[in-house]
Specification:
The protein has 8 helices and 12 strands. It is α/β, with parallel strands linked by helices.
């Protein structure tokens, strides 16, 4: 190293003052090298900051389960969540401000390259009106109704408006809000028609306070996907745990279907009682 690190005036030789300082720096360098290797290794215990984005339609209380499961399984992971528009989440991923994002994508679509898309489940959107509403389930009626929707930039809103425009109608926007609970409250109060996830309606026990309207040729079933830029190293297992938890939430076996209130079921006829022998 171009310097004398040993005191050779004694036997055996020992480190001099400069040698001791070099040894201290070398140990620190080795520790930093090991820490750097653990960051990039998928076999290492997940640790460090994990920044995850959530699209607004997915930012609801049921995600607490998968989040708590992740932090309990990997206590060295510090989770930071951000709720935003899908396009903004994509921008943050590309800027290195997020490790992963959980988003809704139109059926059959993926995130734009170079982002990587892992589809983990399927959702279903329903058109709903308040329980006292009297709209018919056709596009002409829905075109004359006020709507409560997500603001522009939401792919679900764009899909709905595109379908309505193919039938020559345009929705009248009464409110543009991201919060699904507020949207549901507006619909229940009769302020307008809404577009909400079926699982959200059921989990909020709202099937008796809204009517589901299913117009012809409308089936909006977006994909739920985890999007990232590339490999995550030691955080790979943590993201995998989150994916597993969200997949279970949307497993059809764990979900009930909302009742379509616009149609009444005719009760089956009871069997005639057998005469006594």
């Amino acid at each position: 190293m171009g310097a004398e690190l040993l005191d050779r005036s004694v036997k055996p030789p020992r480190l001099n003052s400069l040698g001791s300082r070099v040894l201290e720096q070398a140990r620190d360098l080795l520790q930093r090298t090991e820490a750097l290797q653990s960051v990039t290794s998928t076999d290492a215990e997940p640790h460090g900051l994990l920044r995850v984005g959530l699209a607004h339609p997915l930012a609801e209380g049921t995600l607490i389960g998968p989040i708590l499961a992740l932090t309990e399984k990997y206590p060295r992971v510090r989770l930071r969540l951000l709720s935003e528009l899908t396009v903004e989440l994509f921008r943050r991923l590309l800027a290195g401000e997020l490790e992963a994002a959980v988003v809704l994508l139109p059926e059959g679509k993926t995130a734009p390259p170079p982002l990587l898309t892992n589809i983990i489940a399927t959702d279903r959107m329903e058109i709903v009106q308040g329980a006292a509403g009297n709209l018919d389930a056709d596009w002409k009626s829905l075109g004359s109704a006020p709507w409560v929707l997500n603001p522009p930039g939401c792919p679900l809103r764009a899909s709905l408006i595109g379908r309505m425009e193919r039938d020559g109608v345009t929705p009248m926007i009464a409110a543009e809000v991201h919060n699904m609970h507020l949207q549901l409250a507006f619909v229940q109060a009769g302020y307008g028609v809404g577009l909400l996830p079926a699982r959200f309606i059921v989990r909020n026990r709202s099937v008796d306070t809204v009517k589901v309207l299913r117009p012809p040729s409308f089936a909006l079933q977006p994909s739920i996907a985890v999007v990232r830029v590339g490999q995550l190293g030691a955080l790979e297992k943590a993201v995998g745990s989150l994916e597993h938890g969200i997949r279970q939430l949307f497993d059809p076996a764990n979900r009930r279907k909302p009742v379509t209130r616009s149609r009444r079921r005719v009760p089956a006829k009871r069997r005639a009682a057998r005469p006594p022998k």
